[in-house]
TrEMBL record:
UniProt gene name: EVI5
Organism: Homo sapiens (Human)
Domain of life: Eukaryota
Pfam families in UniProt: RabGAP-TBC
Protein name per its UniProtKB record: Ecotropic viral integration site 5
Region (Disordered): 1-40, 54-79
Lineage summary: Eukaryota, Metazoa, Chordata, Craniata, Vertebrata
Biased composition (Low complexity): 7-36, 59-79
Length: 245
């Protein structure tokens, strides 16, 4: 079974509202380790999250009755305003986290975990995913262009399956599109790095998800981390023993 794979506790979660790379179970940090600015931002983010939760319910109701009530427009405007403030605060906080990552990672792990679970802003998602799995400075990134010049025995299989990966997504659905090409590139490069696994169709959906967030070189590095350090490769070996099939 997939649950039998012993991997680090960081995992990739996809929901209908957001996609996040969640952090491991983290040790508590004392509030005294946070600066007054950090405490203020965290408190404000909590407040805005509560407002957003309330207003999102209100906004769904407003959208259904907007044409029947002028007051609905006022409620909708209020919900949109609260959302705007939440996004602004979130951007400020995540910008600080990224810029001070090494310090934040050591001193404010609990707070980072909580923020990740609430959702990483789309603009920061690519770099934060890389930071969370330590993929941002992998030496193998420099080998990526050379791997693409090589020939993989899996190329025919990869080409065959490309159109089946997120076939309704705009980035991948067109034949010979940029999305299909970079997906092929990453899958080919990995098949050369990990000869035992080679290529497995299911893994292309992981790569496709990464490519929706970041360029192909970065997606390749994160994928290598997930497959090797977090042992997802155990699910894609030819025997598929870890799946319990």
């Amino acid at each position: 079974m997939a649950s039998q794979v012993a991997s680090p506790s960081t995992s990739l979660h996809t929901t209908s509202s957001s996609t996040t790379l969640s952090t491991p179970a983290l040790s508590p940090s004392s509030p005294s380790q946070l600066s007054p600015d950090d405490l203020e931002l965290l408190a404000k983010l909590e407040e805005q999250n509560r407002l957003l939760e309330t207003d999102s319910k209100s906004l769904r109701s407003v959208n259904g009755s907007r044409r029947n009530s002028g007051s609905s427009l006022v409620s909708s405007s209020s919900a949109s305003s609260n959302l705007s403030h939440l996004e602004e605060d979130s951007w400020i906080l995540w910008g600080r986290i990224v810029n001070e990552w090494e310090d934040v990672r050591k001193k404010k792990e609990k707070q980072v975990k909580e923020l990740v679970h609430k959702g990483i802003p789309h603009h920061f998602r690519a770099i934060v995913w890389q930071l969370l799995c330590s993929a941002q400075s992998m030496p193998i990134k420099d080998q990526y262009s050379e791997l693409l010049k090589m020939t993989s025995p899996c190329e025919k299989l990869i080409r065959r399956d490309i159109a089946r990966t997120y076939p309704e997504h705009n980035f991948f659905k067109e034949k010979d599109s940029l999305g299909q090409e970079v997906l092929f590139n990453v899958m080919k490069a990995y098949s050369l790095v990990d000869r035992e696994v080679g290529y497995c169709q299911g893994s292309a959906f992981i790569v496709g998800l990464l490519l929706m967030q970041m360029p192909e070189e970065e997606a390749f590095c994160v994928f290598v981390k997930l497959m090797q350090d977090y042992r997802l490769r155990e699910l894609f070996k030819p025997s598929m023993a870890e799946l319990g099939l």
